[in-house]
TrEMBL record:
Keywords: ATP-binding, Cytoplasm, NAD, Nucleotide-binding, Nucleotidyltransferase, Pyridine nucleotide biosynthesis, Transferase. PANTHER family: BIFUNCTIONAL NMN ADENYLYLTRANSFERASE_NUDIX HYDROLASE (PTHR21342:SF0), PHOSPHOPANTETHEINE ADENYLYLTRANSFERASE (PTHR21342). Pathway: Cofactor biosynthesis; NAD(+) biosynthesis; NAD(+) from nicotinamide D-ribonucleotide: step 1/1. It comes from Fervidicoccus fontis (strain DSM 19380 / JCM 18336 / VKM B-2539 / Kam940). Belongs to the archaeal NMN adenylyltransferase family. InterPro entries: Cyt_trans-like, NMN_Atrans_arc, Rossmann-like_a/b/a_fold. SUPFAM superfamilies: Nucleotidylyl transferase (SSF52374). GO terms for molecular function: ATP binding; nicotinamide-nucleotide adenylyltransferase activity. Its EC number is 2.7.7.1. This is Nicotinamide-nucleotide adenylyltransferase.
Length: 182
């Protein structure tokens, strides 16, 4: 919420799965730069890929994010893009992030668990507004990919290009078929 934002931050942590990065995330990043000098984009669930909810590897997501930031005209020197595998213990997740990442002084998220964990460790939390949530949602974009609908306009062109290069739609379809077998 706006009232929680007290000052300008040195480095804001932005955790997400980015499956895939879409224009909603780009809008959140633009919004965050009003409040902080540098952004750490932590690619969460880095160990997951080849699943309907998590089709892309951490490395693929790193390339998508970097290429999209370049394409959208962001100054890359302001960004750290770091893959972070999940851990079993939510209670120590923030300490785990502190041990892996450059120091940060605020966390940006709309995810209730992330907000709860960050507040418990006394971090300021920036909750971005919804940016066209009806369209910019990873889940909806993956659904469109699976059902053969147009999805390209919801993601930066570089992200669409990389997904096509790695045959990402076919991977998603294959992953959904193996999910059905379970
Ligand atoms: P996400 O779906 O990629 O989204 C990243 C952030 O951007 C979320 O706060 C999301 O809000 C926001 N966002 C997305 N689209 C938006 C839009 N159109 N307008 C405004 N905001 C938008 O990622 P996430 O699921 O929150 O990722 C959290 C990561 O942290 C996961 O990988 C999770 O596993 C990890 N984590 C791990 C642990 C652990 O290891 N124990 C504990 C906590 C979290 P919404 O939430 O509203 O979509």
């Amino acid at each position: 919420m706006f009232e929680e934002i007290k000052e300008r931050y040195n480095r804001i942590l932005f955790p997400g799965r980015f499956q895939p990065l879409h224009y909603g995330h780009i809008e959140v990043i633009k919004w965050m730069l009003n409040f902080g000098d540098e952004i750490i984009i932590a690619i969460g669930s880095a160990q997951k890929s080849h699943m309907v909810d998590n089709p892309f590897t951490a490395g693929e997501r790193m390339v998508m994010i970097r290429e999209a930031l370049k394409e959208e005209g962001f100054d890359l020197s302001k960004f750290y893009i770091v893959p972070v595998p999940d851990i079993e213990y939510n209670s120590i997740w923030i300490s785990y992030l502190e041990s892996l990442l450059p120091p940060f002084d605020a966390v940006c998220s709309r995810n209730p668990l992330v907000i709860r964990l960050a507040k418990e460790e006394r971090y300021d939390v920036l909750v971005p507004p919804f940016f066209l949530r009806s369209e910019y949602s990873g889940k909806k974009i993956r659904k469109k990919m699976l059902s053969g609908e147009k999805w390209e306009s919801y993601v930066p062109p570089s992200v669409a290009r990389i997904i096509k290069q790695i045959s990402g739609i076919q991977r998603l379809i294959d992953s959904s078929l193996s999910d059905e077998l379970e």
